[in-house]
């Protein structure tokens, strides 16, 4: 067994290589969950009568959250693809 | 112990041992052979340590970082890592640099040191099981030859590391062989066993001899190798050998203390932990030496060690009393750590000096990056204070929940704060040191780490630029925020308010643990910065068109709003680098999630709809 393969095996056994992707996936999923929760809360608050400034501020925050959720979903998809690519190698 | 210091101490020892063996060559050839063996053993250990350093290539560090989050894990990791690497000093170096870079807690570091101490007992097993049985000329030489041949065919660092380990192991076996040969021949002339001493007097004398020998040769592993070889050749008695082994354990603390003298507080704290652990273990072993010897006899039967195999029994004794030490001291780790934290606290806080840029962290790229992140945060703290005062705002108000309207009303001082003096005292020195340190660190870094280092340098530059822009902004801000022209006064107080909000946001970002809060706050700050740029939002045009401010005021406002815009942008850019980088590995998702110019444009366009 070549040294590179040996190191790769050790990394796989200890989960040192995939754990980078797994860690990323894990924190991204948790971030998306939190962002979705925020989105729900803001939407709920926006249904209530609010002063104009507050409504503007919340709408802006909602736009930002939606944009971040979309970005996060795209990134998560890329991570799945990367993991599958590693598996097939 | 830091590598450089360890090498500084070890190399003269090797030279001294070799020189003495040369002097004794003609008169006492046997002693000369023993000394030559010791020198070879020490050289072999250095080769092995260097080999593992090259071979680990980050794996060792990752293992240590991942498996040290609680005390039992930390002890086990310290044990296995040291037993495999055969060098407690290498593990100590990594632990100290991790600690200095705050990658692990002091409790975990103490756990690793305890485990590492236990791991050093593996050397005694190596010597007693293989060292004395293997015919050196048959196994040691091919190992050395293999170690020399490998780099000729394989050029990678990992292979070079393996080659170094082979050479090291071969030289260690060769050293043991010479020691064994020297002791065997010496026995024909002088019988050291005649100096054997019975009872507790003998134990104390031999503990002292073991300690002094370890201090002199700077290695407890080498001392154990000598003791086991001398015991195997019948030069010393079993009970005296047990006392010598205890002495070696005590003596090694002196080596660690000597090594930490010129090092940082963390290194000193760990040396104290090591000292306390070994002294307590030593006391327990001395008090219960006869009971422990009986326990070893009992266990030896179970694991198949012959009654007369004193070398292996000594290795077992060495392991048993260290295990007892770990069991006895581990429950008190939290108390020990509490005490250690009270030690070596620098007198007086010099806020213009770096706090984290210690040479020990340069050993590993991951710890170097962590230290630079910590130092940048230190620079940010100083910059935060200077910018607040430059805007004539109280730092305590900014970090409170006081409405921003009230924050800008409560001025910091009636006099102008000298930002230039502040900059020279609290920013310039640290910034210079960070850049110097980064340059030193860069030479040992991978392209990925160099990229992170580059972004950290940018974060530092952003901070410095923000302070410099505050200096420019301050000149007019002090005058116009108290002007009789209510329009210009309003605009300058608006600048103060906006910057106060940015500073508050950055402060929240710096302390929050919630990733979503961090992301949303920074995104909102970016959008706000663009939205309140008075050049692009038409405010300035309106003021000029309606002649509400003079031309001079308009020019000042235009320039100063640009300074304010840059301060905001620089602070946000800095925060995105240093507060979203939770660890130095690639797990951070913030870089990909951060809002770029296109995203900001999209949000602003939505607002306009």
Question: What's the number of structural domains of chain A?
Answer: 1
Helical amount among residues of chain B, as a percent range? over 70%
Q: What letter string, H or E per element, gives the SSE order of chain B?
A: HHHHHHHHHHHHHHHHHHHHHHHHHHH
What is the tally of beta strands of chain A? 0
How much β-strand is present in the residues of chain B?
under 5%
Number of helices of chain B: 27
Gyration radius of chain B, in Å: 32 Å
Number of helices of chain A: 3
Low-confidence stretches of chain B: 1-6, 583-587
Report the principal-axis shape of chain B.
Answer: elongated
Low-confidence stretches of chain A: none
Multimeric state of these chains?
A: heterodimer
Description:
The complex is a heterodimer of chains A (89) and B (609). With 89 residues, chain A is mainly alpha-helical. Chain A is 87% helix and 0% strand. Chain A has helices at 3-13, 18-46, 52-88. The mean pLDDT of chain A is 81. Chain B is an all-alpha fold and 609 residues long. Chain B contains 27 helices and no strands. At the A-B interface, helix 1, helix 2 and helix 3 of A face helix 3, helix 9, helix 23 and helix 27 of B.
SSE order and pairing:
The complex is a heterodimer of chains A (about 90) and B (about 600).
Chain A: H1 3-13, H2 18-46, H3 52-88
Helix pairs in contact in A: 2-3
Chain B: H1 3-24, H2 29-56, H3 59-66, H4 71-85, H5 88-100, H6 106-119, H7 121-131, H8 136-153, H9 157-189, H10 199-217, H11 220-232, H12 238-260, H13 265-287, H14 289-302, H15 310-329, H16 333-340, H17 365-390, H18 395-398, H19 404-409, H20 419-442, H21 447-480, H22 486-511, H23 515-531, H24 539-545, H25 551-578, H26 590-593, H27 597-608
